[in-house]
Amino acid sequence: MKNMIYAEGVHKYYDTGEVKVHALRGLNLSVKDGEMVAIIGPSGAGKTTLMNCLSGLDTISDGKIWLDGKNLVNMSDKEKTRMRAQKMGFIFQFYNLLPVLTAVENVEVPLLLSGKSKDARRRAEKALNIVGLGHRYDHRPSALSGGERQRVTIARALVNEPDIIWADEPTGDLDSKTSERILDILVKLNEMIGHTMVLITHERDIAERADRILYMENGVIKKRLK
Fold first, then answer.
1. CATH code for the domain of 164
2. Are 29 and 65 in contact (CB under 8 A)?
3. Which structural domain range is residue 135 located in?
């Protein structure tokens, strides 16, 4: 099975002018096509920085990153933006839904931004049906529970049929019962559709649902826990 994500010797420095922070310290990582990998570790370990660098949201200071056989480091900002729009979906802890839009309109946004307006409504409704929100198309975020809002973000992440889904603390703002339901959906998507999935979390029980668990500390992957 091919590597969907491959990183070698990745360094990331942040220079505030007063302090130079070495956020990633020669990190190596590979994720197979269709694999679900959880990355856990303490706050400040560099987990979110890693996700931002691997997805092209942030640049690296040194090293190599390949996504689906393409050299991310050599891409222009425009090419990275196109790759994210076409090949990636993002799930964040705090939803990032537009409050003035309904659930189905929020899910349509990635399609419209990537120029795929044809059948956008049908595809958005299909994505909401997959996550069990077919009865909530016309509800705005303020009328949805936390778990329902997170399901809308999952539908938005998968509506473009991406190759990679990045999930950054997707259950961090939810109670344990709702968190379990959200993880059920993510695992089902990985099994049925075959998205490559990288799950960032600090909760070991959440990470256990993944195929592999990697422990990150001080800017490097220290060990495999599963």
1. 3.40.50.300
2. no
3. 3-224
Instruction: Judge whether 65 and 57 are in contact, CB under 8 Å.
Output: no
43-73: per-residue pLDDT in tens?
899 999 999 999 999 999 999 999 999 999 9
pLDDT of residue 38: 97
Q: What is the largest CA-CA distance in the chain?
A: 53
Give the contacts of 155 (CB within 8 A, at least 6 positions apart).
103, 107, 124, 127, 128, 130, 131, 133
Question: How many domains, the chain?
Answer: 1
Q: Residue 97, Cα to own-chain centre: how many angstroms?
A: 15
Question: d(Cα 226, Cα 86) in Å, to the nearest integer?
Answer: 31
Query: In angstroms, rounded to a whole number, what is the distance separating the alpha carbons of residues 182 and 180?
Result: 5
Can you give the pLDDT at residue 144? 95
CA dihedral (47, 80, 32, 173) in degrees, to 10, reads: 40
Residue 116 clears pLDDT 80, i.e. is over it: no
Show Cβ contacts of residue 136 under 8 Å, excluding neighbours closer than 6 positions.
103, 128, 144, 148, 152
Q: Please report where in the chains the tokens 């196109």 appear, as a residue.
A: 82
Distance separating alpha carbons of residues 59 and 53, to the nearest angstrom:
6
Residue 161 in contact with residue 104, Cβ under 8 Å? Answer: no
In the three-class reduction of DSSP (H, G, I as helix; E, B as strand; rest coil), residue 149 is classed as helix
Single out the residue of 59, 137, 178, 12 nearest to residue 206, CA to CA.
Answer: 178
The continuous run of DSSP H or E covering 6 comes out as strand 3-15
- CA–CA dist 164, 91 (Å, integer): 11
